[in-house]
Write a structure and sequence with these properties.
The chain is an alpha+beta fold and about 220 residues long. The protein contains nine helices and five strands; from the N terminus they run αααααααββαβαββ. The longest helix has 24 residues, at about 75-100. InterPro entries: MPN, RadC_JAB, RuvA_2-like, UPF0758, UPF0758_CS, UPF0758_N.
């Protein structure tokens, strides 16, 4: 059945307008992005097929260009649209964090970091540099590769903090494995950086790990 043959209240666009975006399923939201289906599948059915093949929206959106364009009903134009949407989302959350104290926008912090880190296939270590009101000054991707105590240099962190005159920081990195639980190396890094930054009167407010759809906050678990 074509979407325009469905009852009006069941059509994704009309449903969004009447009930809000949160009322839509993942497949319905993706169908709005896709706009059209392919032969034998309407946009909702195509979206549902793509999600089942990839496992989740996050997995689909994390595909590199070549892999993305090989999927049913997708191509370079859709990849460009998607990257624009993701970048707009990232800038939206960054703008919120620049206006508000980070603890007033925990949702924005997590979503900003997800936008930054969701496509990374190797570990990346970010510094969120905050002013005295705990608003975002800048986020910096400081280290890449295997993140361990040997590869994260306190000296580089301190130099970056001083460069931007940050009052406090939030540490963040991703676990491409999909497991958000901190390793012993993660705990050691946090302690080393906390000790180094204390020498210049800068506090680490949190260390957030992003892993697929999961997150871990050191602050929430009393680990910082």
């Amino acid at each position: 059945m074509q979407i325009n043959q469905m009852p009006i209240e069941a059509r994704p666009r009309e449903k969004l307008l009447n009930k809000g975006a949160s009322s839509l399923t993942d497949a319905e939201l993706l169908a709005i992005f896709l706009r059209t289906g392919i032969k034998g599948l309407n946009a909702i059915e195509l979206a549902d097929t793509l999600l089942k093949q990839q496992g989740s929206i996050g997995q689909l959106f994390s595909l590199e260009c070549d892999s993305f364009c090989q999927q049913l009903g997708l191509g370079p134009a859709k990849y460009v649209q998607l990257q624009a949407v993701l970048e707009l989302s990232k800038r939206f959350f960054a703008e919120q964090l620049q206006r508000e104290a980070v603890f007033d926008s925990p949702y924005s912090v997590i979503n900003y970091l997800k936008c930054e880190l969701q496509k990374e296939h190797k570990e990346c270590f970010y510094l969120l540099l905050l002013d005295s009101q705990n608003r975002l000054i800048k986020s910096v991707n400081l280290f890449q590769g295997t993140i361990n105590a040997a590869s994260v240099y306190p000296r580089e962190v301190v130099i970056t903090v001083l460069k931007y005159n940050a009052a406090n920081v939030i540490l963040a990195h991703n676990h491409p494995s999909g497991i958000a639980e901190p390793s012993e190396a993660d705990k050691l890094i946090t302690k080393r950086l906390s000790d180094a930054l204390a020498l210049i009167d800068v506090s680490i407010l949190d260390h957030i790990i992003i892993a697929a759809g999961n997150t871990h906050s050191f602050a929430e678990h009393g680990q910082i």
